[in-house]
Amino acid sequence: MAQRVAIIGGGSSGLSCIKCCLVEGLEPVCFESSDDIGGLWKFKETLEAEQSSMYRSLVVNTSKEMMCYSDFPMPEHYPNYMHHSKLLQYLRLYAEHFDLLKYIRFQTKVLSVTQRHDFSCSGQWDVVTKNRDGHEETLVFDAVLVCSGHFTHPFTPLSAFPGIDTFSGKCYHSWEYKDPHPFVGKKVVVIGIGNSGGDIAVEISRVAEKTFLSTRKGAWVVGRLAKNGLPLDTMMVTRSNALLLQLFPRALLNWAVERSYNQKYNHRLYSLQPRHRILDQRPVINDDLPGRILQGALEVKPNIREFQGSTVVFDNDAVEKGIDAVVFCTGYMATFPFLSSSMNNELHNELSLFRRVFPPFLEHPTMAFIGLLNASGPIMPLVEMQARWACRVFAGLNHLPPAAKMLKITEKDWKANKQSRIQLPDCITLPLY
């Protein structure tokens, strides 16, 4: 009898996990709380609690050649950098091609995932679900794949901004942002210079009276196009470049890459110069941000010192009056409400996931987290590799080292790759491995 695997989430990670389970002879059951596949890539007009959300104009930052699944190329007529609706179409084609939809229970929320009373012997899990009719059901699974992502619980650090309670305008989080219409003719401050912060600030600046982009530490901003107009990631994420990182001093490579980008526009003159070197963190991908700064429609500011009603005071003593709205692009909390508080606490430990997939503190390797990583390139191929590995471990085809060795390896990886932790834009870092 095939082992039953619960898959939580029907987005790009969940679909890959279903397919990988089938390849290894496992029986997948995927629980998706919404009425459709796609996860993050399913655009929703209205907000839904504990659901991911994105803005109407979002275009992916990785090219179709680099981000597709290994055994299912994207259609040739798709653009290199596609609108989110195209990516959702691709996921539908993938699900249809491999006949994955029949393994998904839509509008079914996972309420809890707990170890069975005999977990030390069986390694099994009790999974409690609730469907759209409110009916709760407890099911037993041999393994669990968590694919719910980490863009569902917005983090808004209001306490970090003195006087925010006196602010008379409206505060938003990027999770709430759909389009710039509410900001027409207004003065807006966008806090955070991650990819979302850059996109949202640029879009708002096209309709607002004035837009300010506040950042604590700046960012290296690069466009989607590389030499000869080719997609950036196809030129940068290569084995030869990875070899260069091993052969040449990092300081030399940082100098060379920074010099190249500063020749296009000097980050210091644009008030974008970050504290970190360019190879130490992922750059912000944005084609329009420098142009909006050059046109004066968008002004980069340092961190906000305090709010005084509708007046904002920045760290450099600059004062801007009459601010109508603030958009917090300050990231998300990686929270798994269906897990116990003790397990959530374990998962926020810096050494909690072996190879960013398996919790080493479990007696049996029957739970894996898919997609909780920060990639230097497209994430979908890495998610696919994670899913393959996890399913092979569940099937007994691959084996994990003892817990002590996993912790030792994880600690070594963490020390060597401190900048590879999940970076939440300009505000907090949640170390999840």
Using only CA atoms, what is the Rg? Answer: 22 Å
Distance between the termini: 33 Å
Q: What is the second-level CATH architecture of the largest domain?
A: 3-Layer(bba) Sandwich
Q: What is the number of domains?
A: 2
Indicate the mean pLDDT.
Answer: 92
Structural class: alpha/beta
How many DSSP H or I helices? 12
Total beta-strand segments: 20
The helix content is 25-40%
Overall 3D shape: globular
Reported for the largest beta sheet, the result is: 5 strands, parallel
Taking pLDDT < 50 over at least 5 consecutive residues as the criterion, the unreliable ranges are 419-433
Q: In order across it, which strands form the biggest sheet?
A: 3-2-1-7-18
Beta-sheet strand percentage?
15-25%
CATH superfamily of the largest domain: FAD/NAD(P)-binding domain
CATH hierarchy, class of the largest domain: Alpha Beta
Looking at CATH, which topology of the largest domain would you report?
A: FAD/NAD(P)-binding domain
